[in-house]
Amino acid sequence: MDFKQLIEKRRSIYAIGAQPGLSDTQITQIIQEALKYCPTAFNSQTGRLVLLFGEHHKILWHIVLDALRLVTPEERFAQTKAKIDSFAAGRGTVLYYTDTQTTKELQEKFPLYADKFPVWAQQASGILQFMVWTALAEADIGASLQHYNPLIDEQVYETFQIPQNWELVAQMPFGNILEPAGDKTFLPLQDRMKVFG
Q: CA-CA distance, 105 to 127, in Å (whole number)?
Protein backbone atom coordinates (compact mmCIF):
# COMPACT_ATOMS: atom_id res chain seq x y z
CA MET A 1 0.00 0.00 0.00
CA ASP A 2 1.48 3.38 -0.97
CA PHE A 3 1.57 6.42 1.30
CA LYS A 4 -1.45 8.11 -0.30
CA GLN A 5 -3.55 4.99 0.27
CA LEU A 6 -2.36 4.77 3.87
CA ILE A 7 -3.30 8.34 4.75
CA GLU A 8 -6.72 7.73 3.22
CA LYS A 9 -7.08 4.48 5.18
CA ARG A 10 -6.27 6.14 8.53
CA ARG A 11 -9.66 7.09 9.94
CA SER A 12 -11.30 7.45 13.34
CA ILE A 13 -12.61 3.97 14.12
CA TYR A 14 -14.88 3.88 17.16
CA ALA A 15 -16.32 0.35 16.94
CA ILE A 16 -13.35 -1.77 17.95
CA GLY A 17 -12.86 -5.23 19.39
CA ALA A 18 -10.11 -7.01 21.29
CA GLN A 19 -9.00 -9.44 18.56
CA PRO A 20 -6.52 -7.85 16.13
CA GLY A 21 -4.67 -10.44 14.08
CA LEU A 22 -1.30 -9.34 15.46
CA SER A 23 0.26 -10.29 18.77
CA ASP A 24 0.95 -7.74 21.52
CA THR A 25 4.64 -8.03 20.64
CA GLN A 26 3.99 -7.24 16.97
CA ILE A 27 1.81 -4.25 17.85
CA THR A 28 4.47 -3.04 20.27
CA GLN A 29 7.12 -3.27 17.54
CA ILE A 30 4.99 -1.24 15.12
CA ILE A 31 4.54 1.50 17.72
CA GLN A 32 8.21 1.44 18.75
CA GLU A 33 9.28 2.02 15.15
CA ALA A 34 7.04 5.07 14.89
CA LEU A 35 8.43 6.45 18.16
CA LYS A 36 12.01 5.84 17.05
CA TYR A 37 11.70 7.59 13.71
CA CYS A 38 9.36 10.45 14.66
CA PRO A 39 10.95 13.78 13.70
CA THR A 40 11.39 16.39 16.43
CA ALA A 41 12.84 19.90 16.62
CA PHE A 42 16.54 19.84 17.53
CA ASN A 43 16.24 16.02 17.53
CA SER A 44 14.84 16.53 21.02
CA GLN A 45 12.85 13.26 20.98
CA THR A 46 10.30 14.66 23.45
CA GLY A 47 7.64 12.06 22.69
CA ARG A 48 6.88 9.47 25.35
CA LEU A 49 4.44 6.57 25.07
CA VAL A 50 2.70 4.22 27.46
CA LEU A 51 1.21 1.15 25.81
CA LEU A 52 -1.55 -0.62 27.72
CA PHE A 53 -2.86 -4.10 26.92
CA GLY A 54 -5.33 -6.41 28.66
CA GLU A 55 -6.35 -5.47 32.19
CA HIS A 56 -4.13 -2.38 32.18
CA HIS A 57 -6.09 -1.09 29.16
CA LYS A 58 -9.39 -1.75 30.95
CA ILE A 59 -8.17 -0.06 34.13
CA LEU A 60 -7.45 3.11 32.16
CA TRP A 61 -10.99 3.31 30.83
CA HIS A 62 -12.41 2.63 34.32
CA ILE A 63 -10.38 5.64 35.47
CA VAL A 64 -11.85 7.73 32.65
CA LEU A 65 -15.39 6.57 33.41
CA ASP A 66 -15.04 7.29 37.13
CA ALA A 67 -13.68 10.78 36.37
CA LEU A 68 -16.50 11.52 33.93
CA ARG A 69 -19.13 10.29 36.40
CA LEU A 70 -18.16 13.24 38.63
CA VAL A 71 -18.64 15.88 35.92
CA THR A 72 -21.33 14.50 33.59
CA PRO A 73 -25.00 15.36 34.14
CA GLU A 74 -26.92 12.28 35.24
CA GLU A 75 -29.26 12.38 32.25
CA ARG A 76 -26.28 12.18 29.86
CA PHE A 77 -24.19 9.64 31.74
CA ALA A 78 -25.63 6.53 30.01
CA GLN A 79 -24.51 7.91 26.64
CA THR A 80 -21.09 8.79 28.05
CA LYS A 81 -20.71 5.31 29.58
CA ALA A 82 -21.56 3.65 26.26
CA LYS A 83 -18.84 5.66 24.55
CA ILE A 84 -16.22 4.81 27.17
CA ASP A 85 -17.29 1.14 27.15
CA SER A 86 -16.68 1.08 23.38
CA PHE A 87 -13.07 2.18 23.96
CA ALA A 88 -12.62 -0.35 26.78
CA ALA A 89 -13.83 -3.09 24.42
CA GLY A 90 -10.69 -2.65 22.32
CA ARG A 91 -7.37 -4.47 22.45
CA GLY A 92 -5.28 -1.71 23.99
CA THR A 93 -4.54 1.98 24.37
CA VAL A 94 -1.60 4.18 23.52
CA LEU A 95 -1.05 7.07 25.94
CA TYR A 96 0.84 9.97 24.36
CA TYR A 97 3.07 12.13 26.54
CA THR A 98 5.65 14.86 26.08
CA ASP A 99 8.73 15.06 28.29
CA THR A 100 8.57 18.51 29.89
CA GLN A 101 12.05 18.10 31.42
CA THR A 102 13.62 17.80 27.97
CA THR A 103 11.70 20.87 26.85
CA LYS A 104 12.85 22.81 29.91
CA GLU A 105 16.49 21.87 29.31
CA LEU A 106 16.25 23.03 25.70
CA GLN A 107 14.69 26.32 26.82
CA GLU A 108 17.63 26.90 29.14
CA LYS A 109 20.21 25.89 26.53
CA PHE A 110 18.65 27.92 23.70
CA PRO A 111 16.89 30.90 25.35
CA LEU A 112 16.28 32.61 22.00
CA TYR A 113 13.76 29.85 21.19
CA ALA A 114 12.48 29.31 24.74
CA ASP A 115 8.85 30.14 23.92
CA LYS A 116 8.89 27.82 20.90
CA PHE A 117 10.02 24.56 22.48
CA PRO A 118 6.65 23.72 24.13
CA VAL A 119 4.94 24.38 20.78
CA TRP A 120 7.43 22.23 18.93
CA ALA A 121 6.97 19.43 21.46
CA GLN A 122 3.21 19.50 20.84
CA GLN A 123 3.79 19.48 17.10
CA ALA A 124 6.11 16.49 17.46
CA SER A 125 3.43 14.72 19.48
CA GLY A 126 0.93 15.33 16.69
CA ILE A 127 3.35 13.86 14.16
CA LEU A 128 3.89 10.84 16.42
CA GLN A 129 0.15 10.33 16.82
CA PHE A 130 -0.27 10.41 13.04
CA MET A 131 2.61 7.98 12.52
CA VAL A 132 1.30 5.45 15.06
CA TRP A 133 -2.28 5.81 13.84
CA THR A 134 -1.29 5.29 10.21
CA ALA A 135 0.95 2.34 11.04
CA LEU A 136 -1.92 0.71 12.95
CA ALA A 137 -4.25 1.36 10.01
CA GLU A 138 -1.76 -0.34 7.69
CA ALA A 139 -1.99 -3.40 9.96
CA ASP A 140 -5.83 -3.27 9.75
CA ILE A 141 -6.10 -2.10 13.35
CA GLY A 142 -8.68 0.59 14.01
CA ALA A 143 -8.04 3.49 16.37
CA SER A 144 -9.32 6.88 17.42
CA LEU A 145 -7.76 9.80 19.26
CA GLN A 146 -9.25 10.88 22.60
CA HIS A 147 -8.49 13.70 25.03
CA TYR A 148 -9.62 13.07 28.60
CA ASN A 149 -6.64 14.88 30.06
CA PRO A 150 -6.21 16.72 32.38
CA LEU A 151 -9.29 15.15 34.01
CA ILE A 152 -7.55 11.79 34.41
CA ASP A 153 -3.91 12.87 34.75
CA GLU A 154 -3.30 12.38 38.45
CA GLN A 155 -5.03 9.01 38.69
CA VAL A 156 -3.14 7.76 35.62
CA TYR A 157 0.19 8.98 37.06
CA GLU A 158 -0.49 7.09 40.30
CA THR A 159 -1.90 3.93 38.75
CA PHE A 160 0.80 3.38 36.14
CA GLN A 161 3.72 5.09 37.94
CA ILE A 162 4.22 7.66 35.18
CA PRO A 163 7.12 10.11 35.69
CA GLN A 164 5.84 13.53 36.77
CA ASN A 165 7.78 15.26 33.98
CA TRP A 166 5.69 13.40 31.38
CA GLU A 167 2.69 15.51 30.35
CA LEU A 168 -0.33 13.59 29.05
CA VAL A 169 -1.42 14.76 25.60
CA ALA A 170 -3.86 12.16 24.23
CA GLN A 171 -5.22 8.63 24.46
CA MET A 172 -5.61 6.25 21.51
CA PRO A 173 -7.76 3.14 22.03
CA PHE A 174 -7.24 0.54 19.31
CA GLY A 175 -8.54 -2.86 18.27
CA ASN A 176 -9.90 -4.89 15.42
CA ILE A 177 -12.36 -3.00 13.25
CA LEU A 178 -15.98 -3.97 13.94
CA GLU A 179 -17.50 -1.20 11.81
CA PRO A 180 -15.72 0.97 9.24
CA ALA A 181 -15.59 4.73 9.52
CA GLY A 182 -18.51 6.60 8.00
CA ASP A 183 -18.37 8.93 5.03
CA LYS A 184 -16.24 12.02 5.47
CA THR A 185 -16.93 15.44 4.00
CA PHE A 186 -14.21 17.81 2.89
CA LEU A 187 -14.06 21.57 2.59
CA PRO A 188 -13.08 22.77 -0.90
CA LEU A 189 -9.30 22.55 -1.23
CA GLN A 190 -9.16 25.92 -2.98
CA ASP A 191 -10.43 27.48 0.26
CA ARG A 192 -7.71 25.74 2.29
CA MET A 193 -4.64 26.06 0.08
CA LYS A 194 -2.93 28.66 -2.09
CA VAL A 195 -0.46 27.74 -4.81
CA PHE A 196 1.93 30.22 -6.43
CA GLY A 197 4.21 29.61 -9.37
A: 22
- Dihedral, 46, 136, 151, 157 alpha carbons, nearest 10: -60
The DSSP string of 38-55 is ---GGG---EEEEEEEHH
Per-residue pLDDT of the chain (197 residues; tens, 9 = 90+): 799 999 999 999 999 999 978 999 999 999 999 999 999 999 999 999 999 999 999 999 999 999 999 999 999 999 999 999 999 999 999 999 999 999 999 999 999 999 999 999 999 999 999 999 999 999 999 999 999 999 999 999 999 999 999 999 999 999 999 999 999 999 999 999 999 99
How far, in Å, CA of 161 to CA of 90, rounded?
23
